[in-house]
Amino acid sequence: MTNSHSAQARVGFTAVQDGKVLRITMTNPRRKNALDYDTMVALGETVLTASENRAVRVIVLTGAGGDFCTGADLAASPAEAARGITADQVMDAANRLVKAIVSAPIPVIARVLGAAAGVGVGIALAADLVYAAEDAYLLLAFINIGLMPDGGAAAMIAAAAGRPLAAELALLGERLPAPAAKAAGLFTAVLPADELDAKVEAAAAKLANGPRRAIELTKRALNQATLGALDAALAAEKTGQAELLGSADFAEGATAMLTKRKPVFAD
């Protein structure tokens, strides 16, 4: 295969095919790469399309600027609601994206700088290899705005690190720094920022030139052994989150976050 190089811009991200590697970069750094509905839909479609393209052998997923992804973009919610986009549709888009990453027959590498928060945690941990800079952190901030974790994040954290840590992150909504995430088995490796790209590129090159079918079957077996409960978790999250997105607590939490004040939840 030739070292072809092509690029395609999408809503809120770019997808660049460089030889056998598809590099997807979320491009909303002003909002720490938070994702609106259209971007989540297009990202999922891009991963699914890449999965069917025999010329693509590995996906590298990252964020522009100093962060990976801070989840759904709450600032876009009013405009989305005005377009008739429902909470169920938003949840379906997030779940399709996470499932597309997990079920892709080719490996996905997450390159994580700064914040991986909200559904950004699920997107990062859905990848097969997660390489993070020392300044990276995971944050399930949902509880802080009256929501519950989604994107399969709690299930994937529990699968890798156990229920106690998953409960701590989900119920307290506090940051987990990269070294602690690595120690818990959530990150593949943590490196100084100036060494991160070399590690990602070395892994991508090896996978891109490896035995495609053996890699596919290995990934499938690993996922079956560790993520068998993911579909049920995504379904439960959709039901619960759809309820919470219509609650007074979420309205208060979202307003408080956007106006940078402490929320006051109902008794």
Automatic annotation (TrEMBL):
SUPFAM superfamilies assigned to the protein according to its UniProt record, in alphabetical order: ClpP/crotonase
Gene3D superfamilies, alphabetized: 2-enoyl-CoA Hydratase, Chain A, domain 1 (3.90.226.10), Lyase 2-enoyl-coa Hydratase, Chain A, domain 2 (1.10.12.10)
Keywords assigned: Membrane, Transmembrane, Transmembrane helix
Membrane-spanning ranges: 108-131, 137-161
A GO molecular-function annotation: catalytic activity
Pfam families: ECH_1
Family to which the UniProt record says this protein belongs: Belongs to the enoyl-CoA hydratase/isomerase family.
Descriptive protein name: Enoyl-CoA hydratase
